[in-house]
Amino acid sequence: GKLKGKVVCITGASSGIGRTSCLAFAHAGASVACVARRKDRLDTLVEEIKQKYNVPVAAIPADLFDPEAAKKVIQDAESALGPIDILINNAGMQLVRKLEDVQDFEEEWWKLVVINLRAPAALTHAVLPSMIARKTGILLNVGSAAGAHDIPWCSAYGTSKLAVMKLYQNLPAEIGQHGITTFNVHPGQIMTDM
């Protein structure tokens, strides 16, 4: 495939966009590190990739709510498959509720910001030394139209997606000279179990 020899690390790999992305990159010949909380789904995905595409693949179970998880994800992925060429920050969660109706701010609103903003920032931070040393890399953030448009009852989600979008818009000035490219993609509504 066109991506033979490339290593891609994809978060939120157990379902939806993440799962489909893992399959697509494997189809293109890439080695794929599949990152998600649900180990049973990861194991099923890894077996499917092995059977269909016969490319190197690794299941990396991780809970990205854990502040230490990002560094371990990158270490585990690179130990299993080699240096990461492409990082896809896809893991996320949604909350459809007016701010005034949020009962437990920390557990509902802020937890969403942690997974949707801190996790991609921490994963990006953890992978940068390797990419800078090799003078190459692609960082892709799966954002949302909610980060660019006003959507009622989605204040936490929209805020978190806008913040990480700004991170990826600002990074090229900091790391572009190292041959690292950043992308924000903003899918509209997707039928997924997020």
As laid out across the biggest beta sheet, the strand order is: 3-2-1-4-5-6
Q: Total number of β-strand segments?
A: 6
Q: State the helix count.
A: 5
CATH topology-level name: Rossmann fold
Number of self-contained structural domains: 1
Instruction: Tell me the overall shape.
Output: globular
Please give the alpha-carbon distance between the first and last residues: 30 Å
CATH architecture group name: 3-Layer(aba) Sandwich
The first-level CATH class is given as: Alpha Beta
Spans of at least 5 consecutive residues with low confidence: none
Largest sheet: 6 strands, parallel
Helix content: 40-55%
| Strand and helix order | EHEHEHEHEHE
